[in-house]
């Protein structure tokens, strides 16, 4: 039996990301769209049956996530974990290969950062003093491409008409626009690196 909160978009997203696309997700989404509540039992073929029960006592997932983040922040959990082995003679240096700061994180960026965070946590659990430094790639064609798209440019001549210096300044502003957004999104994933 799985107890679930009231159906909402958050539940749909959770279920879609938790199960392979297929009949179970389609049925669950159909139930959500139709606002059919109550006990629902689904057959999983040779894997048995699953019973979904509406449970209004469970807070929405976003509320649970916020409570966990508040708990970590209030008790300084992240900093304690990062500093627990500062006096260790065993050192592990981790310089993160940075993503381009061109927008919100995507699934590939999220997976990459989560896997790196796992490696760092393992080293901490093994007693290493871990130096972890994330960063961002804020130069080059991806930034220029996004700015060209934002300005509606079709050719390099458009940049010359706009003014190369002006274009470079626009690229510099764009390059730093998403750093705080991405930092926040990585923190939402529970990635414990030195974001300062």
Offer a quick outline of the entry.
The protein is mainly alpha-helical. Helix content is 53%, strand content 12%. It is built from nine helices and five strands, in the order βααββααβαβαααα.
Descriptive report:
It is a single chain. With 196 residues, the protein is mainly alpha-helical. Helix content is 53%, strand content 12%. It contains nine helices and five strands; from the N terminus they run E-H-H-E-E-H-H-E-H-E-H-H-H-H. It has a three-stranded mixed sheet with strand order 1-3-2, with no helix packed on it. It has a two-stranded parallel sheet with strand order 4-5. The radius of gyration is 23 Å and the shape is extended.
Distance between the amino and carboxyl termini: 43 Å
- Overall, the morphology is extended
* CA radius of gyration: 23 Å
Report the strand count. Answer: 5
Residue windows where pLDDT falls under 50 for at least 5 positions: 1-7, 14-25
Strand order of the largest sheet: 1-3-2
User: Oligomeric form of this entry?
Assistant: single chain
The helix fraction, in percent, is 40-55%
Counted by DSSP, the helix tally is 9
Structural class: mainly alpha
What is the mean pLDDT? 78
**Main sheet makeup:** 3 strands, mixed
- Beta-strand residue fraction: 5-15%
Protein traits:
196 residues; single chain; two-stranded parallel sheet; extended; mainly alpha; 53% helix
What is the topological layout?
Elements (H helix, E strand, L loop, with lengths): L1 E3 L4 H10 L4 H11 L6 E4 L5 E6 L6 H15 L1 H7 L7 E5 L11 H19 L3 E5 L7 H11 L4 H7 L1 H14 L1 H10 L8
Parallel strand pairs: 1-3, 4-5
Antiparallel strand pairs: 2-3
